[in-house]
Amino acid sequence: MLTLQQIKENPARVIERLAVKGFDGKEAIERIIELDDSRRALQLDNDTKAAELNKCAARIGALMKEGKKEEAEAAKAEVAAMKQQQKETAEKLAAAESQIRDILLSVPNLPCDAVPAGLTAADNVVEKTGGPMPNLPEDALPHWDLAKKYNLIDFDLGVKITGAGFPVYIGKGARLQRALIQFFLDEAGKSGYLEIQPPYVVNEASGYGTGQLPDKEGQMYYINEDNLYLIPTAEVPVTNIYRDVIIAEDKLPIKNCAYSACFRREAGSYGKDVRGLNRLHQFDKVEIVRIEKPETSYAALEEMKDHVQGLLEKLGLPWHILRLCGGDMSFTSAITFDFEVFSAAQKRWLEVSSVSNFETYQANRLKCRYRGADKKPQLCHTLNGSALALPRIMAALLENNQTPRGIVVPECLRKYTGFDIID
């Protein structure tokens, strides 16, 4: 969440930047400032009363020693009244702090200056394009037909077992899926990311820490009896490792990667845009997460983009990078770059990765800090990215590599699959 310092230093700029995300923050920001002024006054009053109580306690002790019991009893009555007043002040202070936090949780992160204006995906900017465009015949099959033809994925069986959006991978399809996961993890390891194997369920505090709560509770699967959530991405448990942690400066940057299954309730179930692997309720993904000092986070963001680009180049897929406009960004992000691959049979671009810098927004929720040279704890910057999400990568690989002989496996995956063609 935003810090009070950010808001109070330049409230007009905060309101202006929130508008880039299509968020009218004037009322919320003004209310936060008003409540904080009240909170500060209450805190001063509370501190003053505490000092007065200490003086009274010392005076009562002195009066008792002097044998002035009546004066001591009168002072005790005065103290009791002051304690009641202090209790009421403390309650008002806690209420003001709670209101401030509630409003802060409802305000999105500020987009950085590099974020383009715009409200929809149509306003995103293509930053870079690469990779060979396949030349497929007109009768090229989409991946759902290829999956059926070669017995790689059974979508109907998934519906029988669970429901729409839960495919069953079979034989070489399962092996190709596993090959992609291992390839992505190995490449992350080569780039210096320490592998983490996190839980697939998290508690409420973790959801608040990374910003899924209270913004996206309707998009997550909820385990009512235990008040736990299935993770929408490994970002959530991995970043929460550093919740309520003060990191030594010489331990930064921290670079983690993790494979996990991901669960999303909001996945659609109708139309060609969500057919097959295009949108699922359960899917596999390798995530990269970084904890950085503020002055290094944007260089780290470029490194993460280069890492994802390198994966797509090794897979031989056509790709482009989008700089997302304010209105198409997530609630928590300061800047996001989406990677899309071209699906030759569907003749459309498919998103396979988002790489984001959250600056201090998540860190402030998490209380993730580092101790610098001045020994004063400072908020870290957090970043994450998909490297990569599997379903649409699988879709593009099947479609773009189909030949009359079968589906050719990219060379970088063959040591993992044990076969170079699916026929």
Q: What distance lies between the first and last C-alpha atoms, to the nearest angstrom? A: 51 Å
What's the helical proportion of residues?
40-55%
Describe the main β-sheet briefly.
8 strands, mixed
Oligomeric description of these chains: single chain
> How would the global form be characterised?
elongated
Q: Structural class of the secondary elements?
A: alpha+beta
Strand line-up of the largest beta sheet: 1-11-12-13-16-10-9-4
Low-confidence stretches: none
Beta-strand percent range: 15-25%
SS elements, strand count? 18
Compute the number of helices.
13
Mean pLDDT, to the nearest integer, reads 94
Compute the CA-based radius of gyration: 27 Å
Tell me what you see in this structure.
The chain is an alpha+beta fold. It is 42% helix and 21% strand. Strands 1-11-12-13-16-10-9-4 form an eight-stranded mixed beta sheet. Strands 5-7-6 form a three-stranded antiparallel beta sheet. A three-stranded mixed beta sheet has the order 8-14-15, with no helix packed on it. The longest helix has 40 residues. It is elongated, with a radius of gyration of 27 Å. The chain starts with a helix and ends with a strand. The model has no long low-confidence stretch (mean pLDDT 94).
